[in-house]
Amino acid sequence: MITDVEREIRRGEITAGGGRPARLATRAVTHAVLIAMAAMMVFPLVWLNSTSLKSPGKQMVWPPQFIPNPFYPRNYKDLFILAPMGRYLFNSFKISTLSVLGVCFSSSLAAFAFARMRFRGREALFAVLLATMMLPYAVTVIPTFVIMKYLGWLNTHYPLIVPSFFGSAYFVFLLRQSYRAIPQDLFDSAMIDGASFFRIYWGIFIPLGMPALVTVALFAFLGSWNDLFGPLIYLSSQEKMTVALGLTYLRGRAGTGVEKVGVIMAGSMLGVVPMLLLYGFGQKYFIQGLARTGLKG
Amino acid sequence: MAAKTVTLKGMRRREERTAWLFIAPVFLGILVFQVYPTIFSLYASLTSWDLISAPRWVGIRNYVNLVTTDRFFFKTMWTTARYTLGVVLPSMAISLFFASLLNQSIRFKHLYRAIYFVPVVAPTVALALLWGWLYEPNFGIINAALRVVGIKGPAWLGTTQWALRSVIIMAIWAGLGFQIVIFLAGLQAVPQEYYEASAIDGANSLQKFRHITLPLISPVTFFVLVTGIIGTFQDFSLVWVLTGGGPAGATQLIVMYLYGLAFRLQRMGVASAVAYSVFVVIVGLTILNFVFSKRWVFYEETT
What we know:
Chain A is mainly alpha-helical. Chain A has helices spanning 2-10, 20-52, 74-82, 85-116, 122-132, 138-150, 158-161, 169-180, 184-192, 197-208, 210-226, 229-234, 243-254, 261-296. Chain A folds into two domains: 2-52; 78-296, Orthogonal Bundle (MetI-like fold). In chain A, helix 2 (20-52) packs across helix 14 and helix 3 crosses helix 14 (261-296). Chain B has twelve helices and two strands; from the N terminus they run αββααααααααααα. A two-stranded antiparallel sheet of chain B has the order 1-2. The interface between A and B is large, with 105 and 106 residues.
C-alpha cells in the first residue's frame, strides 16, 4: 500500500481521488496535448521541405500536399542560378568553423584559470565578466563597426571571426562550471609531477571537460551560422555573403511573386539542413548543456 | 623550511602570472569590444557624425530631438515594448505549462523535448522566410486552413492591425523550445520530498504547483524573465526579414530603427543616442526586475 502511494508520488501524479481509469484518461489527454504541440513545432519545417520541392502553381493547392506531386527538384537548380548559393554555404562554413575554434580556445583557457588557478582579483574579474553578459549589444555595435572600418576590415570576414578569438563571457561561465567539477586531486598530482599549467589545461581539463566544450562549440557554430546582423552590416559583395544574409538577397532577387516561393524555400532549406544535422548529432549536448546553465543562472 | 617557503612564493607568483596570461584574451576582448564601445557610444551620441567627416560636438541635442521632434522614436519604443511583453510573458506561461507536462514519468518525454527544441537551432532568416509564406494572405496555408472552417483570415503581415500580432506569434514559436528546456531543468531540480510531504498533508496538484513548484523554481523563472526581456527588446533579424518594419512602421522595432539610422542614413550620432536609450531602458528594466524579485524570487538555502 505504502509502496503504491510512493510510486505514484514519484511519478508526480498523485491526485485527490481519481482511480485507475481517470489516470489513464489524464495520461491520454497529456499525450494529446504534447503531440499537438509537437505538430505545431514541426509542421512549418515539414511544410518548408515540401514547398521547396513543389512546382510553381502547385504550392497553393488544397488539400495541402505534404508529398509533392510532381516532385520538382528544379527549385534547387534555379536557386544556384539566381544566387551564388555554393559561395554562401562555403563562407558560412568557413566563418563558423574559425569562430568556433577561436571561441573554444580562448574561453576554455580563461575558464580553466577561473576554475582552478589562484590569483589576486579573481572573484572581482569574474564578476566583471558576468556583468558584461548583461550589456546590450545595441550599445556596442556602432563603435565596433567603426573599429572594423578603421582597420580596413569592411566587406571582409575578419569582423565576423576575429572577435571570437577573444572568447565569450557566457562560454567562460559555462566551461568554468564544468571545470570545477573535475577532481582537485588530478590537478594536484599533475602539479607535483611538475606539469606546467598549460599542460594541465591541455592534457587534463580539455579531455575531461569535453562534453561542456562540445556544447560550447555547437552553440557557437549555431550562433555564427544563424547570425544576420553581423553579416548585414559588414558584408556588401555577393561573394563574401553568408547563407543567412544571402537568403535575404535571394528573396530580393527572386521577387515577391508567389511562383518564386519554391526557390526561396529551397534556399531556406539549405540554410536549415546543416543546423538540423548538427542538432541531430549533438542533440544531448545542446539540451543538457543548456539545462545546466539555466539552473545555475 | 625557509627554502621551501621561497619556492612556494615563487610558485605562487608563477601561478599568478600564468593565470593573467590565460584570461588576457578574454579581458582584452572585453576592453576592446565592450568597455571602449560603451564609452565611445556615449561620446558619439553627443555628436553629429556621418562617418566621413569628423564628429561634431552637439551636446545633448540628439537626445532632445529624439524626445521632441522625432516622429518615430517613441512610436518605435512603444512597439518594441508591446512586442517584448507580447513575446516574453506568453512564452513563459506556455513553456512552463509544457515543461510541467514533461516533468512526469511519461513516455517519450525526451523525444517531445527534442522536437520542441528544433526551431531554436534553425536559422532565423530561413524561419522568417518560411513564416512569411505561411502567413501569405491568399495562398498561405494558415488562411487556406481557416477558409476550410469558414473563416476569412486577415492579411496578417499586411495590415497594421495584425502585423505585430503575427510577428509575436512567430517569435513565440521560435523561442519556446529554449525556455521549455530551461524550465524543465528547473522543475527536475525540485526535491521530491516536498511533494511527498504535501501529498501526505492532502494537497492537490494545483496547490502543490502553487505552493511548492512556483516558489522553488522562481530563480529559474527570474532568469528566463530577465534574459528574455534583454534579448527580446533587441530582436532584429526575425522581424526585419518578415516585415522590414512595415506596414506603415507597425512592426518597427528599436534596433531596426537604430540599424536604419546608423547603416542606411549614416546618422551615427543620432543612432548612438538611440543605442544609449536602449541601454538605459534595458538597465532600468533589469534593475526593476531585481528590485521586484525580492518579493517573489525565493532562493533556497544551500546546505
